[in-house]
Amino acid sequence: MVIAMHVLYIKVPKMQANNVLAKIKGNGLLEPYPVKKDVEYVYFPVKESFESFETLFFDVPQTPKYKGTFHDFLNLPEEIKKGIPNSFDVVGDIAIIKLDAGQYQYAEEIKKSIMEKVHAVKHVAIDEGVKGEYRTRSLKFIGEAYTGETMHKENGITLKMDISKCYFSPRLSQERMRVLNQVKDNEVVIDMFSGIGPFTILIAKFKKVKKVYAIDINQVAIKYLMENMKINKINVPVYPIPMDANEAMPFIEPGDRYIMNNPTMSIQFLPLVNKHARKLAQVHFYTLLDKGQLDKVKKSIEGDYSFSVLEIHVVHPYSPSKNIYSLTLEKV
């Protein structure tokens, strides 16, 4: 199976190519993807931006690091495997898997199987659910006491976090790229539930926006957001705001683009955005719905508020009956 990945490249004049290649190799920044060329430039795949070279993304076919599924390399009897999830998330060097209480007895073998196959993983945790107003994961690390702090790389940025104290989903990596590609120069962007900053940092790193307001009620997440601004050498104005969006928004100028990545609560904040947004502002609205509710919610948004729905797509399934949806709205 071959999948397409968004890969960060730097654009280098051919005369500088050999020297730059030596530098990025020496700094451990070269990624294992094809080098691209045209008449004037060489394009090198990199882990992060380098010096002042222009950055861009290419879709690159990639063979997965392992073929098949988790069950294929899980060293347990078949009848036991059937009840264990067939996938897991990886955040930085932490693998996170959901298990029922009765499956905890197999945790050490599960950890061993994951770490033998996925070499970047140094810790394995059982996900005991997302809880509280900060939407943090309750994690039980297998065979060790660990804080959950890690460094996660995606889409050409590096994100530091404590996954047990801050909400973060690696499954939204492609969604974040989709939003990035819609952002225009000189926009005022309002990231209403920014967390550690995956949307904010990506946009501020790769787009010439006017400014980004990054709001989150979780002060630990805002602390990591500020660290991530330094790690990623953010140069455009980013304003971290450790407040509830309801309290913060009245003091912020109207935006051109709003990101509402809080699927269980975004609908409660839609009246606020409806009042706050300038005309033609776009809103990336995320919501968790039963599959049969989508048309009803779309009609409600267009009928009760000053928005038109430009686009709807499924971000990922949540359960057999529910999906997380992204609706792109425009203020009319």
Keywords:
single chain; 332 residues; alpha/beta; Alpha-Beta Plaits; GMP Synthetase, Chain A, domain 3; Rossmann fold; 3 domains; seven-stranded mixed beta sheet; four-stranded antiparallel beta sheet; globular
Structure description:
With 332 residues, the chain is an alpha/beta fold. It has three domains: 3-62, 2-Layer Sandwich (Alpha-Beta Plaits); 70-146, 2-Layer Sandwich (GMP Synthetase, Chain A, domain 3), CATH 3.30.300; 169-331, 3-Layer(aba) Sandwich (Rossmann fold). It is 26% helix and 33% strand. It has helices at 17-26, 70-73, 78-81, 107-117, 173-180, 198-206, 219-231, 245-248, 266-276, 294-304; strands at residues 3-13, 36-37, 41-45, 54-62, 89-91, 94-97, 123-131, 136-141, 149-154, 157-162, 188-191, 211-215, 238-241, 257-260, 282-290, 307-317, 322-331. α5 packs parallel to α6. The radius of gyration is 21 Å and the shape is globular. The protein starts with a strand and ends with a strand.
